[in-house]
Structure formats: structure tokens, C-alpha cells
What does this fold into?
Amino acid sequence: MVEDSKHYLANLIFKCGIDFHQQGQLEEAVLKYKEAVNLEPNFVSAYANCGVALFDLKRFDESIYFYTQAIALNPGISQLYHNMGNVLVELEQFDAAVDAFNKAIQLEPNVAEHYVNKGNVFAQLKDFNLALEAYKQAIACNPHFAVAYHNKGNVLLELSQFNEAVFEFNRAIDLAPQSVESYFRRAFAFSQLKDYECAIKGYQDTIYLNPAYSDAYLSLGRLFEKINEFEAALAVYDKAIKLGFDDQRFILSRVNLLLLLGRLDEGFALFGEKLDVNKDSGFKVDHESLNGKTVYLFCNQAIEDTILMSRYVKLLAGLGAKVTLGVQPQLAELFYEMGCDVSLNTSSHSSVEFDYQLSLMSLPHVFKTGLNNVPFFSQYIKSHPLKVARWKSELGPK
It folds into this structure.
């Protein structure tokens, strides 16, 4: 009778755990599942469900423990090995994950999901041939499994087999017409094949299906740039910015394109408006405001932009500011001397104390300069003398 009452109580608690689980109250569900197995140590389903909840909580080591207990009690359930494999992937124990999926396949060789997840591990390990074989086996088990075609297409992209990838994404889309990611990846394949018309339509289809898919806007804009449709690219970036995507890539892409087109005033104004970290700090460019103040300049663009924009450092230092310039480490010796009092920093700016911080790219806007009044100095950076001597020796006389 005592054992029966324990069994009855364990089942009640287990069901309570399921209710919590279904409501998304994972911590409470875990407590109930643990309570159930404490009452009934052979309760396979409670161990298994606890493993699922812990996985969802990203408590992977604990999840492994509960799946191991469930498997020890009933080694004939393929889904337990499958779920264990998923946990091992998160722990980056890839060989063990493959073993787990293989055990699931041995128990149920006709379940496509086992092969797909096994293929995903091989794809992550960049063992693309084994990944393709696993996806083929998944498709053989279930020819209507869209995910298998999609993942196979992704591997073919990695192998630069773009026509074959398009074929697989077509199959995925036929089976799952709302599969946004398949449209996006197919568009990328078309772009690699230089079928720009299909690529543009693909990115537009992606946006139609999911107007919040930011990468589709970015890829579409960059594709328009590639084929010299600059106004179309600007329109895409502008739309993305107006939609409020919290992504600096759109602003930087629009800024860079405006600068490329010679529309410097627009480009630098946009950079200042959207990316100036001091716009609400009372920062002013005059001697009274900056004299004795520490200004940290950080670089968030390419190396060539850092070199070009560093001409503005002298202007800032001339207003009495103590300037620290954060540069990419490979530029440290090139910026050995800058004709003004400036400190270089090649590590994270979090260790630098400052009164104001600005992006180096914001200085043209800060100083209100355009094409007609870009600061000109005969020399605003000077490399390390030993480097200069070495290269003179290497290159010989002019």
C-alpha cells in the first residue's frame, strides 16, 4: 500500500510538473520532476522530462545527468539518445553527440530527425561530405522533410555548389512555402551564380514573408551596390533605418555609400546624427569647453578610414584637449608621431578614463568640414624611424 501511494503521489507530482512545463515555468517544472523521481527512482518519464526542461534552461550538465539516468532505466527509447545528442552538441562534445545520434538510429532507423541532427553535427565540424550523406539518409526516410533539404542546401553552399544548392532550397520551399530562411539562402546562392535578378527577387520575397528580417535588407542593399544600383541600395538602407532596426550595419553601410558617391556632407551628418555618443552630453568643439578635458577617440571602421580620419586629431588637440586615440594594433608603429600631444591605445577603450568619447569617423561632422575644407597637413602621421629605415633599405633610393 505504501508503494502504491508513493507511485500515485509521484504521478500526481509529475503531472503537476508537466503543467508547469507547458506554461513555460521551467524552474518549477524541474522541481516537480525531481520530487517525482525522489519518490519513485525508476520513473523514466520524469527523468526524461527533467532533462528537457533543464536543456531549455541551458543547464546542460544537469540535463545530461537526467538523460543518463533515464537511459540507464530504459535503454530502448531512441528519443532519449536523440535528446542526449542535442545536449552534447551544446556542450561541444561532438564525437559523443554523433555516437548518441547513431544509437538513436540503431533503435529507430527510419526517423529522419535522427539523421538531420547527426548531419548538423558534421556540418558544424565542416565534415561536409558526411553531412551530405546524413541529409540524404534523412530524405530517404522522409522525402517530405523540408528541413533536410534546407540543411543540405546550406552544406552545398559551403562547398560552392551553388546550382545544386538552389535545387535543394527549391525543394525546401515547395514543401514549406513559408520557410523564410530557405528563400534567403536561395537568394544568396543566386547572387553567387551572378543571377542578380533572381537574387534580388529572393531577398524581396524574404522581406515580404518577414518584414523584420534585417539580414535580408542588408544583403539586398549590398547586392544593389555590387551591381552599381546605388540609389536602390540607399533606399534599402534608408528603409531599414526608418523601420528602427537596432543595427549599426545599416547606418554604416549608408554612410559608406554616401561617402563613396562623394556626398560627404550627407554621410558625415548621418554618422553624427545616429552614432555620435556625445550628442546628449553637452559636447562642444571650442577651446573653452575642451581645454584640459580628456577625449577618447575610438575606431569602428576599416584601417584605411582610421588613417584618413586621423588628420582631425591635430584639430582636436589644438583646442587644448588631451586626446587618446584608440587604433587597430597593426597601426601602432605607423602612428608613432602625429605632430601633436596624443596618446595611443591599442586595447579595449574600457580601461581608458575620459570626459568625452567620440568615434574618429564623427570628427568631420563635429568640425563641420566637407569636400572644400578637409583639413590639410603636409604630414599628420609619422612612422617609427626604425621602420622607415628598414623600408628605405628594402626599397632603395627613389
